[in-house]
Amino acid sequence: MQCEVDMDLLCWGSGELGQTGHGRPEVIPPEEALLKEFATSGLGSVKLLACGSSHSVVVTVDNKIFAWGNGTSGQLGNGERAVKNQPVEVKLPQELNVRGSHLDGNFANVVGIACGSRHSFIWTETGQVYSFGNNFYAQLGYDFQRADFKENQLAPCLFQNLPSSLKISQVACGERHTLFALEDGSVAACGVHSVLSPSPQGHVSW
């Protein structure tokens, strides 16, 4: 998947699970990659994009979020566990400031997205980070021992497992783990322990 200079969206490859957004299950060649319906339907020009193993997420210049493909673990963030062959809109919770009150104003400015095999992350200019999808290995960063733990988070949930003094500047998702680059130059991680450390202790690490 790529975004052209004029912000047209191109997506090609296997469409078996709807991940190309063309609404067709067959392989889409590069010469047929233009997602015409995305532009003509008024969904907006794309500024950010990311691909998981079988799902895709984009953000438009007016900060609308769309996803499509395999959503059986909630990785599309639209509140369902289903395959979507065409773009569906993803709604973020109303953004909160560090004191927990709602920010006045319009849409949060989304500055980054990342997709793992079955999970997704979105983060904003103000440092708010949201995650959704599969959390079996704690790759979303939620404590799986909590009573309200969800193995599959179907809608974006505010990430709150780091001290408020640490602002996330970049996120990268692997198959079953996630890495966070922080503004102070440090790095945090969550997910499968064998990926994050040579130590065999348990399945999940921070």
TrEMBL record:
Cross-referenced InterPro entries, in alphabetical order? RCC1/BLIP-II (IPR009091), Reg_chr_condens (IPR000408), Ub_ligase/GEF_domain (IPR051210)
Q: Which Pfam families does this one have?
A: RCC1
Q: What is this protein called?
A: Uncharacterized protein
Q: What domain of life does the native source organism fall in?
A: Eukaryota
- Where are the annotated RCC repeats, by residue? 7-62, 63-126, 127-184
Renumbered to this chain, the signal peptide range is none
| Coiled-coil regions listed | none
Q: Which UniProt keywords apply?
A: Repeat
Q: Which organism is it from?
A: Oreochromis aureus (Israeli tilapia)
